[in-house]
Amino acid sequence: MLATYCQGFHSLNIEQILDTHPLVVAPDLPVETVIEQMSQVSGQGCALATVELETMHPEAKTKFSCALIVQNHQLLGIFTERDVVRLVAAEANLTAITIAEVMTQPLITLQQSDVHDVFTVLATLRQHQIRQLPIVDDRGGLLGLVTQTSIRRALQPFNFLKLRRVGEVMAQPVMQAAASTSLLDLARQMTQQRVSCIVITEAKQQGSLQIDLPIGIVTERDIVQFRTLGLSLAKTLAQTVMSAPLFLVRPQDTLWAAHQAMQQRLTRRLVVANEAGGLAGIVTQTSLLQLFDPIEMLTEIEQLQQVNEAQTAELSQANQQLQATNQALQAEMAERQRLELVVQNAYRSLEERFGVQSAQLVQTDEALRQERNFIAAVLDTVGALVVVLDRSGKVIRFNHACEQTSGYTAAQLYHRELWDVLIPPPERATVKAVFQQIKQVQEPSQYENYWLCKDGTRKLISWSNTVLTDATGAVEFVIGTGIDVTEQRQVEQTLARQYQQAQLLSEITRRIRESLEIGEILHTAATEVRQLLACDRVFIIQFGPGQTSQVIQASMRMGTTADSALHQRVDGLQPMTDTTAAVSVCNDLQAETSSLQSSTFLQQWGAQAAIEIAIYVGEQPWGWLTVSQCDRPRQWQAFEIELLQQLANHMGMAIAQAQLLDNLETQVAQRSQQLMQTNQQLRQEIRDRIQTEEALRESQQRLIGILDHADEAIISVDSQQHIVMYNQGAEQIFGYSLSEVHHQPLGILLPDVFQQSHRQPVQSFTGALEPSRQIANRRRDVLGRRKTGETFPAEASISKLQTKTGLIFTVILKDVTEQRRAEATLRHGEAQLRLITNALPVLICYVDRQQRYLFNNQTYADWYQISLSDLQGQSVGEVIGEAYYSQAKPHIEAALSGQQVSFEADVTTPDGNSRCLLTTYIPEIDAQGNVKGFFGLTNDISDRRAAERMKDEFVSVVGHELRTPLTSIHGSLVLLASQKLGTMPPPAQEFLEISLKNTQRLTRLINDVLDLERIESGRVTMAMQTCPLTDLILQAVQAMQSMADAKAIQLTLEPTPVTVWVDADHIIQVFTNLLSNAIKFSPAQATVWIGAAKREHEILVWVKDQGRGIPASKLDTIFNRFQQVDASDSRQLGGTGLGLAICKNIVQRHGGEIWAESPPGRGSTIFFTLPDVQ
């Protein structure tokens, strides 16, 4: 039954404990409105599943305990009754704040896919100490709510709560308050102590003690309800609104009763009162759910199942004993029924006499009195117990046998209820139930119960009960006739015990006669003794050499393993030569002085009482039989000691017989062995010969299979070098069939030049000691000749075998034509690769995972002035030096992790010169994705660096030299264009404007070149400061507004309130360049957008236009110098090709990145990032 409950509890799924109608509100609702909705009946909230309210459990129609805040199908937070109490205690204005301001965040939820069973939900509630748990799907959508009420409702079928008491789980101490406390003070106490209720108590003096009587309770839900009703919590006292009267439970009540009471009264908590009526504690839904710890439940269920199995076995045994005594009881019942008939006849006689007329009553009064005396004398004379009870159970008649048995007189029990005096308290309820059943059925019945006698002893009485009714058929009296069966039961138990002892001795004797296996006999004895005596452990110990002994058999109580005690060493035991001292008994090892030799060993196994019996084989001590009780001291009985002595004697005889049998078997075996040796030798020779012949046949078959399927040529020749064996592999290699070469000289398969030279190694091998050897070495191959006359290289080995007809030589030959051809191709390729790499002016190497060189070209060796042979196997750090290695180490580690890297480094050559090197590492990755090593390519870019510096210096000098005359030219042209020096003809004026525009373009070009040169050379210092990004964008827009107005282009700003850490002037220059490009390449009346967005650690800025766009092939090159999408119209529009290059350098100096995106036909967008001020 318990296993069924546990399995059913495991089978609970999430749908059975899920409330799909929680209260769901929007985040902008006032708190006051949410509290009013929480006061409504649950089931009217957001329907997450289709459930009819009429079919819902009555407990499900309670008020909401919380509200879930949801927006756009996303769960934002939760608002519980405890939050209401907290706000009320703080006297917050609930109409002025929204639910989003006071909801609990972050919210603890559980995904449906993570819910394996109800224990997962219980563990989450217990871990976070919460009472409501939202369940969501994989996308975060709300599925429903799990509360303590929904779990408790689902646990109704699992009435194993009957096994636990309220006192085991009740919470204490309990928050309490006086009836005069205001609700506002109660709310503050709930908030401070984090409790869900406060018990209202009243002090009462009871004798010398003062107790707190619980008179009511105020909960969080009450505070919510009263707040909804608009009551003044500061002025409302607890005594006017508390829940009263209380339903109290006792600590000794079962949790099942408390669970049912919660369901019937639609409450989530019950107050616990002690025997005096005082406050003892409180039991809540949390208390009930704390029991459902899966590990604790499984442990308790296993223990209960073990107890149940043991009790079932005992009941089965008791039933057998009851069946054995049933016949005796039937005889006793026949006697009791006869007595009952006598009593009934007497009472019927009395009733008939009462029906006569009054005159006859006077005449027969004396006779009636005599008859009554006779009946009383009969009742007092019979040996049976006779008790007459009225309809309320009070004693009317109590005969002499009852007085002798109980020690009470009839006067002491007259008109007192029988069970209040004679029935032991544990049996009173059962006896009352039997009494009521007798009155209802009104038929004779039989029952047994104990009497608690006046002297304190207990007597077992077997009753036969009948009733007497009045004229209306109602029960007037109940007559019980009983027999004291206490001694009878004791005799039955003694007989049963003696029978078991006889059975045990008989079983051991039978085992001795049947098996004579000493191990089986001792195992049976140990097991049966432990079961019969109901003890904890039985050990059989055998004496060893010296004073060392060993446990050879053990039987232990269920729950322990006997194997752990087997073969345990026991020190200090001495054989007892005196048989009179072969028994030692100790009822309490801790309190008494023990004479047991094995007491130390037994105490190691937890023994508190023990018996030690010596086992003798003949007259010699063999070992000890020990019986121990571990859970308590025990008064050993004489029959138990006698039984153990008999068992020890039987075991001694069994051991003696087994030893005698072993000696006889040894003598017979020795004689039989002498007779069988000759026959065995003959049979062995025959078997060896048969096995040898069989092995030879198997070996020949395996050899034939190998020869037929081998790809190599396998050829055997005799001492005259004639072919005697020739496999299929040889046929494929040489082209000859077996019939063509059989018994032919081996020379048919050899070239002419090799026919003589092969004889010498064969002849030298004939006299050698080794059974096989290689014919050729690495510098020279064996040559073979095919049927076509073609000569081919081969690898061959030769072995020899001495037979009756002479030596047989076997050659295994492999055609290596393709292998030699591939090796030649590989060597040629390696030589070409070496020539190519040596001719390149680049340092080339290959490094393995241990950072050791496996390949270097000649340029590498010349650079470091180390020979190629010395470079092989050296570590990179030893060759390139510590300074260079410290720069290269992180890039080497990146390459070994699978990344391709390039870097520049300034190094000092072995001759002391300073050079700049550009190095690229390319990892080698195998098919499994593992990095085997990397290739290194190093270029000396010192000359290129010098050329770039000279170019930059030249550009700077030329730019400054051009700026001065160009400024004069531009000024002169401006003066002429202003016509202050005179009016010029229209053609001249037109040429003048062209010259002016070209000088302006040239000026811009020179300025851009100089700006770019200064930025790249690092001569420009960035004045970093905190700036609002919107202000910088507005300044750039204002500067470019006139240019945009000229083409009717609208500049649209998408402001974002962010702050950046930048050089304001240079960032404005970036915006100006990007806006200038966007306006130039956008059609008239278009729109240019400027915007920004905040990311994790940076600010993303973009400028978007509606121009022709940028081809995908130029998206990566337009930020280089003098790169333009279309140089023809770019020059017409006044572009220099340096604006985006300047923007790139400025953004990179700020630690950002810049890139372009241009979907076909949809304009282009330039993005760049700036550091956030944080």
Please give a quick description of this structure.
The chain is α+β, with helices and mostly antiparallel strands and 1174 residues long.
Architecture overview:
With 1174 residues, the chain is of the alpha+beta class. It has 8 domains: 2-157, CBS-domain, CATH 3.10.580.10; 162-293, CBS-domain (Roll), CATH 3.10.580; 338-484, PAS domain (Beta-Lactamase, 2-Layer Sandwich); 492-664, GAF domain (Beta-Lactamase), CATH 3.30.450; 700-804, PAS domain (Beta-Lactamase), CATH 3.30.450; 821-940, Beta-Lactamase; 947-1014, Helix Hairpins (Orthogonal Bundle), CATH 1.10.287.130; 1021-1171, 2-Layer Sandwich (Heat Shock Protein 90), CATH 3.30.565. The protein is 45% helix and 22% strand. It is built from 38 helices and 41 strands. The strands form 10 sheets. The protein has a 6-stranded antiparallel β-sheet with strand order 20-19-18-23-22-21. A hairpin with a 5-residue loop joins strand 33 (914-925) and strand 34 (931-940). Helix 4 (81-89) packs across helix 9, helix 20 runs parallel beside helix 23 and helix 35 (1029-1046) packs parallel to helix 36. The model is unreliable at 1-5, 43-60, 776-780 and 1127-1131 (pLDDT under 50).
